[in-house]
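Researcher: Here's a chain I'd like modeled. Treat it as a single chain, no partners, no ligands.
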Amino acid sequence: MLKNLLRRYKKINNYLNVFGSSDIFGVFVYQENGKIVYANKTLEKLLGYEHEGLLNKSFFDFLKVDFDTLNHIKDIVLKRLSGELFAIELKEYFFCNKHGIKIPVSIFAYTVDFEGKPSGLILVFDKSKEKSYEKLFFALSQINQLTIRQNNENDLLKAVCDVLVDKVSYSACVLGVVKNKKFKAIYKRAKNYIDESSIDFDLEVKPQNVCNCSVSKAYFSKKISLIQNVSQTLNCEGDFFSKFNVRSTCAIPILKNAKVSYIILIVDTLPDTFDDKFLHLLNEIQEDLIFALNKIEKDRFSLLTFSALNQSNELVVICDSNFRIIFVNEGNYLSSDAFKVLIGKEIAYLFDKEQFKIIKSSFYNTLKKGEAFLGLLKYDLKEGSKEFYTSIYSFVDSGRITHYILIAKEVSQKEELKDKLYKLMHFDEATGFINLNTFIYTCELFFQKVLEHSQISSIMVINPIQFKNINHAFGYEMGNKILQEIALRLKQNIRLSNVIAKLESDRFGILIKDLKTPEDVLVITVKLLNELSKPYMVESHKILLSFNIGLSFFPNDSKNAKDLLNKAQVALVDARQKGENQAGFFRKDIETKSSQKLKLKAELELAVLNKKFIPFYQPYVDKDKNIVGAEALLRWNKNGKILLPGKFLSILEDTSLIVDVESMVLNQVLGDFKTIKSYCKHLVPISVNLSIQSLMQKHLAQSLVSNLKYFGINEPFLRIEIIERSFFNDFNYIRRLIDELRQSSVHFAIDDFGTGYSSLSYLTKLNVEFLKIDISFVRGLSNTQTKNITKSIIYLAHSLNLKTIAEGVESMEQFEILKNMDCDYFQGYLFYKPLPKEEFFEIIKCKGGVL
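Model: Modeled as a single isolated chain. Structure tokens:
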């Protein structure tokens, strides 16, 4: 575009009239030895020089390149100064300003005539903000990985500092705490041009109305504090900043229990590295670290309490509702043999037989009423009978007694074991079910008991699909309420003789005991899937969930409880491949497939870091075959080979990677806006598909609006395609999201319409503009019933003032039928296949776009 514009002007004065006053481009003209003979104010501001300081200075002095590149540029300069006419556009370099700061730039270079001599005209575009955004996005990705891998608070925070400097390339990072109103560094990391030992902060933290330093503001506000240019701000960190040429800072307060526990101070030698436009990314980093530290603290406390329980001298026993013992703690009163024998026995087995005969009636009657039994009881132990002060409580869930908890301490001992401690270590707090360790132990004891009888049993692992989206959209409190509802349905549909547990994350485990054949478990599985997949009504929200169930069998798959549980987890892979609300079974070939999937997941994580996902563009046309828009389709550039989503999309959707990938592709599409706009008389809008995971992000609207501003888009360029299922996660949230983004000229389309719930009542409430008719209807147009359904969809869409786009049009016959039905737009191989952006640009350049 610049090259074409320059051709319209014959004299250098005209060039300078066009670009000399630009606020976007720095402009200079050079002659012999690269000496600058003209420079505009934007270049002066970029490089930090006064006008006279730039004139007669060689631009080689502030060009930061290696020796070979510099020689190549000097050759180009000689050709240009000899009068050779040629242009070089969009080359990326680093310029070094007056203060020694490297600034990323793109340049456009042309041969011109200045004051009667062949000269070089250079236009310089500052890419600092773009690079800053990339660094923050990369920082968020790296820190997300750290929060998953690290389980130690200090190691996590130190690793964050290392990553921010060593991988993200900020100049320095300081981890510190505020004590006695002073900020003290406890860990430091810096680039090699900064002496880490000199970073010895001992700063006084002052109220915001007294001090403008980023640390003080972060501490008192408990919010992220940015300084975009420290030279324009008086603060107490000035000596350090001046010594190492620091230009911008960011202080991130890390909160625990609503108090600032740590502050991470990041500094950079580039000004404006931390911009208010990028605050949403910094907020994500802060929230991830706060969440990770809370989880580490909770895990540490759980480990501590588990150790305390097992080292306790008190005896703790749990019975089911029939007074059968299901758990005994590792106390000092029972031998290992006696410990195993107790499981499955009635509680009376513990007590002195003569004494228990006397109290038996009142003992059971009291507990069955839900009242606590308190008293002195004699126990039959290996050393003989001992008297314990005994407390037995009923555990009530959903209005009925499900367990009894016994805590006994020897009369001679004074310490009392807390009921809360026991529950914390062996029960899930949200559902009341036993936890993972207790489940494995209970299963193991049962398998040992029935091994000689060849009893067939099954371990079942139940996994709600994409349950993490519930937590992201509604919060963990709502997530726990739904887990409680799932737990209630399980209890209502599983016999009391079986064992239900709450495993890690959102998974449940069930031990199905008495099976005549393995096939008998299918009846139970189908019943559970039917009940669990019914809608959940929680706080006036209607939530739809799907489930997968993985199954392994005792003794055929294994005779070890832990091994069987792992194999049931592997069987979930088989279930997921079959689809939603399906059961999977453990087989040897599933293990191989699982390993391959893990390898592919690791490759996908690396591909995200290396930005290997790209958009291909597939145009769609009107009835006259004019291009009216295009859909950006996801592709993976794997070692030069372009892979379709069918190879990897399911794994992306099973992880949080789908959000990163869709964000990456969306930014590439927005980055292509100016090129697409320049190639068409009328702007061709681009559609981008967003998954449910991306739509439910907390800061999606804020982030997207920020990106639109960053790429200078204030026209109806972007369309977002969402599937019908998105509405049922949180209809009100989706409606608010659409309304908010419509204010920024973002339009919405419903993708694959007709294959899901197809509820027109929802469409009347959503501010969408397009319906995409699914390819299955287009391929089935030869069938009369399918044809009538398609015609009805188009008619009803038009009655709601919605445009229709038919997907997968591959023949002229399909095109003519859809045109006669008054379909608005058409997409498919009959017109265009998905294209790399370069080919897409050429097509719209030749054919243009018509709205």
